[in-house]
Design brief:
The complex is a heterodimer of chains A (281) and B (334). Chain A is an alpha/beta fold. Chain A is 23% helix and 22% strand. Chain A has helices at 55-62, 106-111, 129-141, 157-170, 187-202, 214-217, 241-245; strands at residues 17-25, 30-39, 44-48, 67-75, 78-79, 89-92, 175-179, 206-210, 223-228, 231-236. The chains are: A alpha/beta (281), B alpha+beta (334).
């Protein structure tokens, strides 16, 4: 079957994400401060930064899991709290496992991506031909087309990450935010994930990928943004980033607990600002 | 016609058991999925206070119990969604306060009321009146209809609350609704299995369903089937053995669970061959990896060093170099 699961496009040419002096955090503290970032349709942006830099909070703020505390945030041209169809911004959370206390098949987990499209008063539509086809196509896009009826807990960590990506795809989002899709995954599976992301990028998907490991996903990425201590310290082509901020984003921790400020090398000494390139500014 | 069907109270008992056996596992599966298996037990404690209030004030105990448990259910979910560590203590105060208040109030029951504490704690199915039965039918239909309508949302939220929130699903509302449905199920079940055994009827059929099922969907339907068979079977057994219905139903549920566990263990022992671990196989086969992929029944084999193998969970099944030989000893795939 040829995968055709595609975004339900609103036909808008507005920036997918548009942040002006935006701040995100939780009740007690602000973690991301004063960020300006614009992501246009078709871009694949890697967001890099050490543990505790706030890159995860940025993604969580955009999907409504962290609070937007200041500044202006627009998604698809609309202010964040006016965005009605939240599924338009897809989300691949940072999870190391899909295991829950109940048995689930891969197809059932991916089917969760269709729930926002299924009215609560018409549960029979969950099993509609259209939904079944979208689930199968999403799985096939991530290379798991033959695993639909497999128990998710028996999949490897790398395969489970691909299930999470398929679940996001099944919701037909206009853009997808991914939080550390390759963290804690062995080399062989990282390579497969990189190829899946490259395939999605080639199909014109808009993606924002928070990651420690640019290497595995570099072919997919059109732009890199580095965050440290809640601020953007680099924004430009992915190839120039290593020389630009070498030393600041090279702290690899596969199993980071993402606790802000704990164990992360903090930048106390002033460092030269790299050239900030904003191709779409 | 079996002789037990000749009695009105047995027909009423069986109908009540059928309602409870259907509704309890349908709510229970979502409670198990949230790892809150004991919530029904806590709400059962609170329900006794409601029964006590009804008996003392001269109102129908089923209605007062329903009101009190629904209020407690909403409070539990609000406490849980705040996520404070003190929430755990708040629940303990609520649960023990509920059962203590119930016992004290029931001791003050006006003379001549048939209510006694143990019939509520352990169930007394043959005291079910026609009014009770009508109420239980309406409540059970509400529980079954609501869980059926919202099943995919209940599943989605328990599967990954963050993702559900990001997709715009009403997480807090659905969680409160599940808590309220649990409260309703507790009240429907209290005359059949008793307030102390209610959780068993919500949880045990799902424990068995999880052992036998291969998906969320199939394990749910197995659980409902087991719930119906065990609750009506338990009532019939209690008629012949002259034992209390609640305890009999729960013992039947546990027996079925034990048999299912044993069966699943035997199946695992008999299989568990023809595998090489993924850990010893450094390469991940998928459709773009360059190795020849061969469609093989409902899955794909990859040809690698003359071997055909297929990913099966966390290991590769060796499917042999030639298909004929393989066909004769094909492992049963999920």
């Amino acid at each position: 079957m040829t995968p055709t699961v595609s975004p339900l496009s609103s036909g808008s040419t507005d920036p997918v994400i548009d942040l002006r002096s935006a701040a995100f955090g939780y009740a007690e503290r602000t973690i991301i401060t004063d960020i300006d970032l614009t992501v246009h349709p078709g871009e694949v942006v890697a967001v890099l930064g050490p543990n505790g830099s706030g890159k995860s909070t940025l993604v969580k703020g955009l999907v409504g899991l962290a609070q937007h505390t200041a500044g202006e945030v627009r998604l698809f041209g609309e202010p964040l709290d006016h965005v009605h169809d939240r599924w338009r911004l897809g989300y691949v959370p940072q999870r190391h496992t899909l295991a829950t206390s109940l048995r689930s098949t891969v197809g059932e987990v991916v089917g969760v991506g269709r729930v926002a499209h299924t009215p609560w008063w018409a549960p029979w539509r969950a099993g509609s031909a259209e939904n079944r086809q979208l689930i199968a196509q999403s799985l096939s896009l991530v290379g798991l087309g033959d695993q639909q009826r497999t128990d998710v807990t028996t999949l490897s960590g790398g395969q489970q990450r691909r299930v999470l990506i398929a679940r996001a795809l099944a919701a037909q989002p206009e853009a997808i935010l991914m939080d550390e899709p390759t963290a804690g995954v062995d080399r062989a599976n990282q390579q497969v994930l990189g190829e899946v992301l490259t395939r999605l990028a080639a199909a014109g998907r808009t993606m924002v990928i928070v990651t420690h490991e640019l290497e595995a996903i570099r072919p997919a990425v059109t732009r890199a943004v580095a965050i440290d201590s809640g601020r953007i310290i680099y924004d430009g082509p992915p190839d120039a980033i290593d020389t630009s901020i070498s030393g600041h984003v090279h702290h690899h921790h596969d199993d980071d607990d993402d606790t802000a400020g704990v164990g992360a090398p903090t930048l106390t000494a002033p460092h030269p600002m790299p050239p900030v390139e904003r191709p779409h500014a | 016609m079996p002789e037990f069907l000749a009695f009105d109270f047995m027909r009423a008992s069986l109908l009540a058991a059928l309602l409870v056996g259907t509704a309890a596992p349908m709510v229970g599966i979502h409670i198990v999925q949230r790892q809150m298996s004991l919530i029904g037990d806590g709400l059962g404690h609170v329900a006794l206070a409601g029964v006590g209030i009804g008996v003392v004030t001269g109102n129908e105990p089923v209605f007062t119990a329903l009101i009190v448990t629904v209020i407690a259910a909403v409070a539990i979910e609000l406490i849980r969604s705040v996520g404070r560590t003190s929430g755990d203590l708040a629940l303990a105060v609520m649960f023990y306060g509920g059962i203590a208040l119930g016992v004290v109030l029931l001791s003050k029951a006006p003379a001549g009321t048939p209510a006694n504490t143990s019939s509520y704690l352990f169930g007394a199915i043959n005291t079910v009146t026609n009014t009770d039965l009508a109420t239980f039918t309406v409540l059970a239909v509400i529980v079954v209809a609501t869980t059926t309508l919202l099943r995919s949302r209940l599943y989605a939220i328990a599967q990954d609350e963050d993702f559900a929130r990001s997709a715009g699903l009403p997480v807090v509302f659905v969680n409160i609704l599940l808590s309220v449905l649990t409260a309703v199920t507790v009240v429907v079940s209290m005359r059949v299995v008793g307030l102390l055994l209610i959780s068993a009827l919500m949880i045990l059929p799902n424990a068995t369903g999880q052992t036998l099922g291969r998906s969320f969907r199939s394990s749910l339907w197995l659980a409902v089937g087991i719930g119906i068979v065990c609750s009506t079977g338990g009532v019939i057994a209690s008629y012949y053995a002259d034992t209390p219905s609640g305890g009999s139903i729960v013992l039947v549920l546990i027996a079925v669970f034990a048999v299912a566990q044993l069966g699943a263990w035997l199946v695992r022992v008999v299989r568990g061959r023809h595998q090489s671990s993924l850990a010893t196989h450094p390469h991940v086969h998928w459709e773009d990896c360059g190795h020849e992929a061969v469609a093989h029944g409902d899955h794909v084999d990859y040809v690698h060093d003359g071997q055909r193998h297929a990913a099966h969970g966390d290991h590769w099944d060796e499917h042999g170099p030639d298909a004929e030989k393989h066909a004769s000893k094909a492992p049963v795939r999920k």
